[in-house]
Design a protein that fits this description.
By secondary structure, this protein is of the alpha/beta class. The chain has 11 helices and 11 strands. Helix 9 crosses helix 10 and helix 10 crosses helix 11.
Length: 317
Protein backbone atom coordinates (compact mmCIF):
# COMPACT_ATOMS: atom_id res chain seq x y z
CA UNK A 1 0.00 0.00 0.00
CA UNK A 2 2.68 2.60 0.81
CA UNK A 3 3.94 2.73 -2.71
CA UNK A 4 4.73 5.36 -5.25
CA UNK A 5 2.22 4.23 -7.82
CA UNK A 6 -1.23 4.54 -6.36
CA UNK A 7 -2.17 4.92 -9.94
CA UNK A 8 -5.77 5.95 -10.09
CA UNK A 9 -7.43 8.25 -7.63
CA UNK A 10 -10.96 9.49 -8.13
CA UNK A 11 -11.75 9.88 -11.84
CA UNK A 12 -10.96 13.36 -13.00
CA UNK A 13 -8.45 14.00 -10.22
CA UNK A 14 -5.29 12.93 -11.99
CA UNK A 15 -4.65 16.12 -13.95
CA UNK A 16 -3.09 16.36 -17.36
CA UNK A 17 -0.76 14.30 -19.47
CA UNK A 18 2.50 12.97 -18.12
CA UNK A 19 3.56 16.08 -16.19
CA UNK A 20 5.21 14.97 -12.93
CA UNK A 21 4.23 16.73 -9.72
CA UNK A 22 6.59 15.05 -7.28
CA UNK A 23 9.85 13.14 -7.21
CA UNK A 24 10.76 10.26 -4.94
CA UNK A 25 14.18 8.61 -4.91
CA UNK A 26 14.75 9.87 -8.45
CA UNK A 27 11.42 8.59 -9.81
CA UNK A 28 8.92 11.06 -11.20
CA UNK A 29 5.36 10.53 -10.01
CA UNK A 30 3.00 11.25 -12.89
CA UNK A 31 -0.42 12.89 -12.99
CA UNK A 32 -1.41 10.48 -15.74
CA UNK A 33 -0.94 7.57 -13.31
CA UNK A 34 -2.48 9.35 -10.30
CA UNK A 35 0.65 8.46 -8.33
CA UNK A 36 0.88 9.39 -4.65
CA UNK A 37 3.38 8.45 -1.96
CA UNK A 38 2.16 7.24 1.41
CA UNK A 39 3.97 9.13 4.17
CA UNK A 40 2.29 7.50 7.17
CA UNK A 41 4.25 4.35 8.16
CA UNK A 42 1.62 3.44 10.75
CA UNK A 43 -0.75 2.47 7.94
CA UNK A 44 1.84 0.06 6.56
CA UNK A 45 2.31 -1.50 9.99
CA UNK A 46 -1.45 -1.83 10.45
CA UNK A 47 -1.93 -3.57 7.11
CA UNK A 48 0.85 -6.05 7.91
CA UNK A 49 -0.72 -6.77 11.30
CA UNK A 50 -4.22 -7.20 9.87
CA UNK A 51 -2.89 -9.69 7.29
CA UNK A 52 -1.55 -11.98 10.05
CA UNK A 53 1.20 -13.19 7.72
CA UNK A 54 2.85 -16.53 8.52
CA UNK A 55 6.44 -17.42 7.75
CA UNK A 56 5.14 -20.04 5.32
CA UNK A 57 2.94 -17.63 3.32
CA UNK A 58 3.33 -16.51 -0.28
CA UNK A 59 2.00 -12.96 -0.52
CA UNK A 60 0.76 -11.24 -3.68
CA UNK A 61 1.31 -7.48 -3.88
CA UNK A 62 -0.20 -5.51 -6.75
CA UNK A 63 1.49 -2.26 -7.74
CA UNK A 64 4.44 -2.25 -5.31
CA UNK A 65 5.83 1.02 -6.65
CA UNK A 66 9.17 1.83 -5.02
CA UNK A 67 8.70 -0.99 -2.54
CA UNK A 68 7.98 0.46 0.91
CA UNK A 69 5.31 -2.14 1.63
CA UNK A 70 7.20 -4.82 -0.28
CA UNK A 71 10.21 -4.59 2.03
CA UNK A 72 7.99 -4.99 5.10
CA UNK A 73 6.25 -8.00 3.53
CA UNK A 74 9.61 -9.61 2.74
CA UNK A 75 10.54 -9.42 6.41
CA UNK A 76 7.70 -11.74 7.47
CA UNK A 77 6.61 -13.81 4.45
CA UNK A 78 8.22 -16.83 2.83
CA UNK A 79 7.86 -15.22 -0.61
CA UNK A 80 6.42 -12.02 -2.11
CA UNK A 81 5.10 -11.90 -5.67
CA UNK A 82 5.01 -8.25 -6.72
CA UNK A 83 3.21 -7.33 -9.94
CA UNK A 84 4.15 -3.89 -11.28
CA UNK A 85 3.05 -2.27 -14.54
CA UNK A 86 5.34 0.80 -14.50
CA UNK A 87 8.85 -0.14 -15.78
CA UNK A 88 10.45 2.72 -13.81
CA UNK A 89 9.09 1.31 -10.58
CA UNK A 90 10.29 -2.18 -11.54
CA UNK A 91 13.84 -0.84 -11.86
CA UNK A 92 13.60 1.08 -8.59
CA UNK A 93 12.30 -1.92 -6.65
CA UNK A 94 14.97 -4.18 -8.12
CA UNK A 95 17.64 -1.70 -6.99
CA UNK A 96 16.23 -1.52 -3.45
CA UNK A 97 16.09 -5.28 -2.96
CA UNK A 98 19.17 -6.37 -4.91
CA UNK A 99 22.00 -7.44 -2.63
CA UNK A 100 19.83 -7.64 0.48
CA UNK A 101 19.05 -10.77 2.51
CA UNK A 102 15.51 -10.66 1.10
CA UNK A 103 16.40 -10.67 -2.61
CA UNK A 104 15.79 -14.41 -2.99
CA UNK A 105 12.27 -14.07 -1.52
CA UNK A 106 11.00 -11.58 -4.14
CA UNK A 107 9.42 -12.56 -7.45
CA UNK A 108 8.95 -9.31 -9.39
CA UNK A 109 6.63 -9.51 -12.39
CA UNK A 110 6.52 -6.63 -14.87
CA UNK A 111 2.98 -6.89 -16.21
CA UNK A 112 -0.53 -5.50 -16.28
CA UNK A 113 -2.18 -7.50 -13.50
CA UNK A 114 -5.50 -7.61 -15.37
CA UNK A 115 -3.81 -9.46 -18.25
CA UNK A 116 -1.83 -11.82 -16.05
CA UNK A 117 -2.58 -15.40 -15.06
CA UNK A 118 -1.89 -15.05 -11.37
CA UNK A 119 0.45 -17.62 -9.81
CA UNK A 120 -0.27 -19.35 -6.51
CA UNK A 121 -0.50 -17.15 -3.39
CA UNK A 122 -1.90 -17.48 0.14
CA UNK A 123 -2.53 -13.79 0.83
CA UNK A 124 -2.88 -10.54 -1.07
CA UNK A 125 -1.74 -7.29 0.55
CA UNK A 126 -1.85 -4.25 -1.72
CA UNK A 127 -2.72 -0.65 -2.36
CA UNK A 128 -4.61 -1.32 -5.56
CA UNK A 129 -5.04 1.12 -8.45
CA UNK A 130 -8.44 2.77 -7.97
CA UNK A 131 -9.38 2.71 -11.66
CA UNK A 132 -9.38 -1.09 -11.75
CA UNK A 133 -10.64 -1.72 -8.21
CA UNK A 134 -13.86 -3.49 -9.20
CA UNK A 135 -12.53 -5.81 -11.94
CA UNK A 136 -9.44 -6.56 -9.84
CA UNK A 137 -11.52 -7.55 -6.81
CA UNK A 138 -13.47 -10.05 -8.91
CA UNK A 139 -10.32 -11.31 -10.60
CA UNK A 140 -8.95 -12.08 -7.15
CA UNK A 141 -12.18 -13.67 -5.93
CA UNK A 142 -12.35 -15.94 -8.99
CA UNK A 143 -8.77 -17.13 -8.51
CA UNK A 144 -8.21 -20.81 -7.82
CA UNK A 145 -7.07 -22.20 -5.51
CA UNK A 146 -8.74 -19.94 -2.96
CA UNK A 147 -6.43 -17.68 -0.98
CA UNK A 148 -6.85 -17.01 2.75
CA UNK A 149 -7.62 -13.30 2.62
CA UNK A 150 -6.82 -10.00 0.90
CA UNK A 151 -5.97 -6.77 2.72
CA UNK A 152 -6.58 -3.98 0.22
CA UNK A 153 -6.29 -0.21 0.23
CA UNK A 154 -9.08 1.23 -1.93
CA UNK A 155 -10.93 4.50 -2.41
CA UNK A 156 -13.13 5.09 0.65
CA UNK A 157 -16.43 5.26 -1.23
CA UNK A 158 -15.59 2.03 -3.03
CA UNK A 159 -14.87 0.40 0.33
CA UNK A 160 -18.19 1.55 1.76
CA UNK A 161 -20.00 0.16 -1.27
CA UNK A 162 -18.21 -3.19 -0.87
CA UNK A 163 -19.38 -3.42 2.74
CA UNK A 164 -22.89 -1.97 2.31
CA UNK A 165 -25.92 -3.89 3.58
CA UNK A 166 -29.57 -3.89 2.43
CA UNK A 167 -31.29 -0.54 3.15
CA UNK A 168 -27.90 1.26 3.21
CA UNK A 169 -27.77 4.17 0.78
CA UNK A 170 -24.69 2.70 -0.92
CA UNK A 171 -26.08 -0.85 -1.19
CA UNK A 172 -25.56 -1.86 -4.80
CA UNK A 173 -24.73 -4.59 -7.28
CA UNK A 174 -21.06 -4.41 -6.23
CA UNK A 175 -21.99 -5.21 -2.62
CA UNK A 176 -24.30 -8.08 -3.57
CA UNK A 177 -21.78 -9.68 -5.92
CA UNK A 178 -18.79 -9.29 -3.61
CA UNK A 179 -20.64 -10.59 -0.57
CA UNK A 180 -21.80 -13.61 -2.57
CA UNK A 181 -18.16 -14.65 -2.90
CA UNK A 182 -16.47 -13.29 0.22
CA UNK A 183 -16.81 -12.02 3.75
CA UNK A 184 -16.04 -8.29 3.61
CA UNK A 185 -14.86 -6.13 6.52
CA UNK A 186 -13.95 -2.45 6.66
CA UNK A 187 -10.75 -2.23 8.73
CA UNK A 188 -9.80 1.43 8.83
CA UNK A 189 -10.08 4.81 7.17
CA UNK A 190 -6.92 6.39 5.76
CA UNK A 191 -6.90 10.15 5.39
CA UNK A 192 -5.82 11.69 2.11
CA UNK A 193 -3.32 13.65 4.22
CA UNK A 194 -1.44 10.39 4.74
CA UNK A 195 -0.13 10.80 1.21
CA UNK A 196 2.30 13.23 -0.38
CA UNK A 197 0.94 15.00 -2.35
CA UNK A 198 -2.55 14.31 -0.98
CA UNK A 199 -5.12 12.91 -3.45
CA UNK A 200 -8.61 14.39 -3.61
CA UNK A 201 -10.25 11.46 -1.84
CA UNK A 202 -9.78 9.52 1.40
CA UNK A 203 -8.96 5.82 1.32
CA UNK A 204 -9.93 2.76 3.34
CA UNK A 205 -8.42 -0.61 4.07
CA UNK A 206 -10.74 -3.59 3.65
CA UNK A 207 -10.39 -7.31 4.28
CA UNK A 208 -11.82 -9.85 1.84
CA UNK A 209 -12.05 -13.47 2.94
CA UNK A 210 -13.17 -15.70 0.03
CA UNK A 211 -15.88 -18.20 0.92
CA UNK A 212 -14.44 -21.68 0.65
CA UNK A 213 -16.03 -23.50 -0.99
CA UNK A 214 -17.72 -20.79 -3.05
CA UNK A 215 -21.53 -20.95 -3.34
CA UNK A 216 -22.76 -23.37 -6.04
CA UNK A 217 -24.10 -20.59 -8.25
CA UNK A 218 -23.39 -19.70 -11.87
CA UNK A 219 -21.85 -16.28 -11.27
CA UNK A 220 -22.43 -15.04 -14.82
CA UNK A 221 -26.13 -15.79 -14.52
CA UNK A 222 -26.27 -14.39 -10.98
CA UNK A 223 -24.65 -11.15 -12.13
CA UNK A 224 -27.04 -10.92 -15.08
CA UNK A 225 -30.04 -11.02 -12.75
CA UNK A 226 -28.52 -8.69 -10.16
CA UNK A 227 -27.46 -6.20 -12.85
CA UNK A 228 -31.04 -6.11 -14.12
CA UNK A 229 -32.45 -5.65 -10.61
CA UNK A 230 -30.08 -2.78 -9.79
CA UNK A 231 -30.51 -0.91 -13.06
CA UNK A 232 -33.47 0.67 -11.29
CA UNK A 233 -32.85 -0.42 -7.72
CA UNK A 234 -35.60 1.73 -6.19
CA UNK A 235 -38.27 0.36 -8.52
CA UNK A 236 -40.24 -2.71 -7.50
CA UNK A 237 -39.28 -6.01 -9.14
CA UNK A 238 -42.74 -6.07 -10.70
CA UNK A 239 -41.89 -2.83 -12.49
CA UNK A 240 -38.35 -3.92 -13.39
CA UNK A 241 -39.47 -7.11 -15.10
CA UNK A 242 -42.46 -5.54 -16.84
CA UNK A 243 -40.82 -3.71 -19.82
CA UNK A 244 -41.08 -5.42 -23.18
CA UNK A 245 -37.30 -5.26 -23.72
CA UNK A 246 -36.67 -7.23 -20.53
CA UNK A 247 -39.25 -9.87 -21.43
CA UNK A 248 -37.79 -10.20 -24.92
CA UNK A 249 -34.31 -10.69 -23.49
CA UNK A 250 -35.55 -13.43 -21.18
CA UNK A 251 -37.50 -14.95 -24.08
CA UNK A 252 -34.33 -15.14 -26.19
CA UNK A 253 -32.54 -16.96 -23.39
CA UNK A 254 -35.63 -19.12 -22.87
CA UNK A 255 -35.54 -20.25 -26.51
CA UNK A 256 -31.79 -20.85 -26.43
CA UNK A 257 -32.00 -23.08 -23.37
CA UNK A 258 -34.93 -25.01 -24.86
CA UNK A 259 -32.94 -25.56 -28.05
CA UNK A 260 -29.97 -26.82 -26.02
CA UNK A 261 -32.30 -29.38 -24.44
CA UNK A 262 -33.67 -30.33 -27.89
CA UNK A 263 -37.13 -29.04 -26.95
CA UNK A 264 -39.48 -27.38 -29.47
CA UNK A 265 -38.88 -23.65 -29.82
CA UNK A 266 -41.87 -21.37 -30.38
CA UNK A 267 -42.07 -18.08 -32.21
CA UNK A 268 -41.04 -14.78 -30.64
CA UNK A 269 -44.54 -13.68 -29.68
CA UNK A 270 -45.63 -16.96 -28.08
CA UNK A 271 -42.38 -17.37 -26.13
CA UNK A 272 -42.47 -13.77 -24.92
CA UNK A 273 -46.05 -14.26 -23.75
CA UNK A 274 -45.08 -17.47 -21.95
CA UNK A 275 -42.09 -15.78 -20.33
CA UNK A 276 -44.35 -12.96 -19.13
CA UNK A 277 -46.58 -15.52 -17.42
CA UNK A 278 -43.59 -17.31 -15.88
CA UNK A 279 -42.12 -14.06 -14.52
CA UNK A 280 -45.46 -13.13 -12.94
CA UNK A 281 -45.69 -16.59 -11.40
CA UNK A 282 -42.18 -16.44 -9.93
CA UNK A 283 -42.76 -12.99 -8.43
CA UNK A 284 -46.06 -14.13 -6.97
CA UNK A 285 -44.57 -17.33 -5.50
CA UNK A 286 -41.65 -15.48 -3.92
CA UNK A 287 -43.75 -12.51 -2.82
CA UNK A 288 -41.16 -10.18 -4.38
CA UNK A 289 -43.39 -8.33 -6.86
CA UNK A 290 -43.49 -5.26 -4.61
CA UNK A 291 -39.95 -5.71 -3.29
CA UNK A 292 -37.07 -3.38 -4.24
CA UNK A 293 -33.52 -4.57 -4.95
CA UNK A 294 -32.11 -1.97 -2.57
CA UNK A 295 -33.95 -3.68 0.31
CA UNK A 296 -33.29 -7.32 -0.60
CA UNK A 297 -30.93 -9.66 1.24
CA UNK A 298 -28.44 -12.12 -0.23
CA UNK A 299 -30.86 -14.94 0.58
CA UNK A 300 -33.65 -13.10 -1.26
CA UNK A 301 -31.57 -12.88 -4.44
CA UNK A 302 -30.58 -16.54 -4.14
CA UNK A 303 -34.21 -17.58 -3.82
CA UNK A 304 -35.23 -15.39 -6.73
CA UNK A 305 -32.59 -16.86 -9.05
CA UNK A 306 -33.46 -20.42 -7.99
CA UNK A 307 -37.16 -19.84 -8.72
CA UNK A 308 -36.43 -18.24 -12.09
CA UNK A 309 -34.26 -21.22 -13.03
CA UNK A 310 -36.89 -23.69 -11.87
CA UNK A 311 -39.32 -21.93 -14.19
CA UNK A 312 -36.89 -22.29 -17.09
CA UNK A 313 -35.84 -18.62 -17.07
CA UNK A 314 -32.18 -17.73 -17.35
CA UNK A 315 -30.04 -14.58 -17.41
CA UNK A 316 -27.18 -15.91 -19.52
CA UNK A 317 -26.93 -18.05 -22.63
Amino acid sequence: MPKADKRNSKPGSSGSGSTPYHRHVGVELHHSLGQHLLKNPLVTVAMIEKAAIKSTDTVLEIGPGTGNLTLKLLEVAKKVIAVEHDPRMVVELQKRVQGTVYAHKLQLIHSDVMKLDLPFFNLCVANIPYQISSPLVFKLLSHAPRFRCAILMVQREFALRLCAKPTDELFCRLAVNTQLLAKVDHLMKVSKNSFRPPPKVDSSVVRLEPLNPPPPINFVEWDGMVRLCFNRKNKTLGAIFKPKAVLQLLAENFRTHKALRNEPVGDDASDTSQVHELVDRVLEETGFAEQRASKMSQEDFMLLLAKFNEAGLHFST
